[in-house]
Design brief:
six-stranded mixed beta sheet, binds adenosine monophosphate, binds magnesium ion
Length: about 400
C-alpha cells in the first residue's frame, strides 16, 4: 500500500498544465497565466495630479504663507480626461483636478484647501515643495517591468493591473473539465424522498463544489447503478469530454463494487489503495487515455481524498505553482487516539492562540460522519505509527 505522499507524487506525475488559450482580461478571474507579463508602458502613463487644486511652478510660490500669499494669474483648467496644450508660463497657474495631466512647465500642485481664488487670480497660502502632489509617470511601474509571472493565479488586483496596462487578451491555462461520477444503487437526488434503504446523493454536490473551488469545471452525470455495463458506459462517455474523471463509491471489495473492473476493461489501474484514513481505497488509473481517480463513497472520504489527490491534480492542470494547501503548526486541544498503521486525517477547527493556532477536532471522526466537515478549517495529520496524541501536542 502506498503512503499518501508517494501516492500524490505518482498521481501528479501524470499531469501537466493544459495547453494555454487566449482569453480577454475581463474573463480571466481565477485563471492562471501561462506567460511572464511585462508592462508595455509606464504606469501612471503621464505625470498627474494627486489632488484637486492648482498646478504651479513651485519657484513662483516659494516662501508663500497665509499672511503673505503668492498671487498667480489663472490661465485655465484641466480636468481628468483632458490635457492642456503648451507650457505653463512663469507667474501663472491652472486649476487642476485629481488624475488630470500636470501641464508641462508646472512642477507642483497646491491643494485647493490652501488657496483662495479671486477673479482671475489664485492666492497660494502655503509654499509647495517641488513635485508636491504630483504622481510621477512610471512611479508605479516602469515600461518593461515584469508585472505578473507565469503561474500566477489572477485575482481582482492582478486583473485590474493587467487591464490598466492593456494586457488583453492573455494566454492562460484553461480550466480542466472534471467529470464527476457517483455510483450506488441506493442513491436518489437531494430533492427526492428516499425509499427503503435509499439515501440522498450528497457526493455529487460535494464533488462538483470541490471541483469548482479548485478551479475546475465540473461535468455532471446521472448516478450510476451498481452494475458493470452502466459503469463502463458512463466512464466511456466521461472520457470523451473530460480532462480528468473523478468517481465516488464502488472501489472497495464488495460484491457490487464495479468501478475497478470497469476501469481495467477500458483502460488501466496504477494503484488502488493508499495508507490513510479515511479514504483508503483510492484508485488511480486511466480510462481510454483520460486520467481517472476513484474515491470511496463515504462522504468524508471523498473530501479527504479530493484534498490529497484531486485538488493538486486540478491545480497542476491549471498551471498553478502551489499545488497543496498551506501547512501550519497548531496545538492540539484534546487527546486523540487511533490504531497504529495508517496516517489519519483528523478534521479540525482552528482558533488563534497567542502567536499560533489551536486545533480542535470536529467531533466523531468516522468516514460516514458528515457533521465532522461542518465548520472544518483543515485536517490534522495523526502520524501512521502513533496511537495517541496528547492534548497540548
Ligand atoms: P461504497 O464506497 O460504494 O461502498 O460506499 C460507501 C458508503 O458511502 C456507503 O454507505 C454508501 O451508501 C455511501 N455513499 C456512496 N455514494 C454516496 C453518495 N453519492 N452520496 C452519499 N453517500 C454515498
Ligand atoms: Mg457503493
Amino acid at each position: 500500500m502506498l503512503e499518501v505522499q508517494e501516492a500524490r507524487l505518482r498521481i501528479l506525475g501524470g499531469f501537466s498544465p493544459l495547453p494555454p488559450e487566449e482569453l480577454r482580461v475581463a474573463e480571466a478571474l481565477g485563471f492562471v497565466v501561462a506567460e511572464d507579463l511585462a508592462a508595455p508602458h509606464p504606469l501612471p502613463r503621464f505625470d498627474n495630479s494627486a489632488m484637486d487644486g492648482y498646478a504651479v511652478r513651485a519657484a513662483d510660490a516659494a516662501g508663500a504663507t497665509e499672511a503673505d500669499p503668492a498671487r498667480l494669474r489663472l490661465v485655465g483648467e484641466v480636468a481628468a480626461g483632458s490635457a492642456m496644450e503648451g507650457e505653463l508660463a512663469p507667474g501663472t497657474a491652472v486649476r487642476i483636478m485629481t488624475g488630470a495631466p500636470v501641464p508641462p512647465g508646472a512642477d507642483a500642485v497646491v491643494p485647493v484647501e490652501v488657496t483662495r481664488e479671486i477673479d482671475d487670480q489664485v492666492e497660494i497660502l502655503q509654499a509647495p515643495s517641488p513635485r508636491a502632489h504630483i504622481r510621477d509617470a512610471g512611479s508605479d511601474i516602469g515600461a518593461g517591468d515584469m508585472v505578473v509571472e507565469a503561474g500566477t493565479e489572477l485575482g481582482p488586483g492582478e486583473l485590474a493591473l493587467l487591464a490598466s496596462l492593456g494586457l488583453s487578451p492573455l494566454r492562460v491555462h484553461p480550466r480542466p473539465k472534471v467529470a464527476v461520477i457517483v455510483t450506488g444503487a441506493e442513491l436518489v437526488t437531494p430533492e427526492a424522498e428516499p425509499g427503503p434503504g435509499q439515501i440522498r446523493d450528497s457526493n455529487s454536490l460535494a464533488l462538483r463544489s470541490l471541483v469548482l473551488e479548485a478551479g475546475g469545471e465540473p461535468l455532471t452525470f446521472d448516478a450510476v447503478a451498481d452494475d458493470l455495463a452502466s459503469t463502463e458506459e458512463t466512464l466511456k462517455r466521461a472520457a470523451q469530454d473530460a480532462d480528468l474523471i473523478v468517481s465516488s463509491g464502488g472501489v472497495s471489495v464488495g460484491r457490487y463494487d464495479f468501478v475497478k473492473e470497469a476501469v481495467e476493461r477500458l483502460g488501466s489501474i496504477d494503484f488502488w489503495r493508499v495508507a490513510m484514513q479515511p479514504g483508503k481505497p483510492v484508485v488511480s488509473g486511466e480510462v481510454a487515455g483520460t486520467p481517472f481517480l476513484g474515491l470511496p463513497g463515504n462522504p468524508v472520504s471523498i473530501h479527504v481524498g479530493f484534498e490529497q489527490f484531486v485538488r493538486p491534480a486540478i491545480r497542476r492542470m491549471r498551471g498553478c505553482r502551489d499545488l497543496v494547501r498551506p501547512v501550519i503548526d497548531a496545538t492540539l486541544s484534546e487527546t486523540i487516539t487511533k490504531r497504529a498503521g495508517r496516517l489519519h486525517f483528523v478534521r479540525v477547527r482552528l482558533t488563534r492562540e497567542g502567536d499560533g493556532f489551536r486545533a480542535t477536532p470536529t467531533g466523531a471522526q468516522g468516514s460516514h460522519v458528515q457533521s465532522s466537515l461542518v465548520g472544518c478549517d483543515g485536517v490534522a495529520r495523526f502520524p501512521k505509527d502513533l496511537e495517541q496524541m496528547e492534548a497540548g501536542t
